[in-house]
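Hey team,

Filing this mostly as a record. A colleague (T.K.) asked me to run one chain through the structure pipeline before their review meeting, and I want the input and output archived in the tracker in case anyone asks later how it was produced. No errors, nothing strange. Just documentation.

Input sequence:
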Amino acid sequence: MLVRTRRGSGHDHRDGSWQQHRLWRVILCLRQLQMHKSFWEPTPKRCMMKIAKDFHWEMGHRLPEHFGKCKNIHGHSYKMIVEIEGDVQQSGMIMDYYDLKKIVNPVVDELDHAFMVFDGDTEIIEFLKKAGSKKVIVDFQSTVENICRYFLNKLKSVEFPSNVHKLKVKIYETHDDYAEEEIEF
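Output structure:
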């Protein structure tokens, strides 16, 4: 009896050769997989990974010592990316995004719709007091580089889980200008 296979070739399978054929194909597939060692190696116990979350806020400032337009009162729609690197826990996560948000949001809320002002800029501080405006007085010029350090210093004082080894903050002042810095724990 001649039986046609799916491919249309004719094989006489009365002698059980189809079982041998199928077994041979499985062996060939396994040999090909063995070439990819990573398939057979167990996952390492320490698996480093990165996760990141975006945060946004609106804030005014000025750079009184600047030579251009930035010496004027103005504001930006800031975007910050907080990235952490660490070991993946048994839960399959480095850290829950909800927990990261709970750590970062208080600092973002402090700055949102506020005016960041250098403590030496007394003229603007007096104006903001009279206007009853929300302000954050800092001991540095409010450049994006210094704002990045400000956030990093605030966040590094928080107790992160012990599996987190690195923290990076990247702040966009405009859609194409940013500063970033990172620390290791």
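Quick notes for T.K.: The chain is about 35% helix and 30% strand. Residues 82 and 169 are 5 Å apart (CA to CA).
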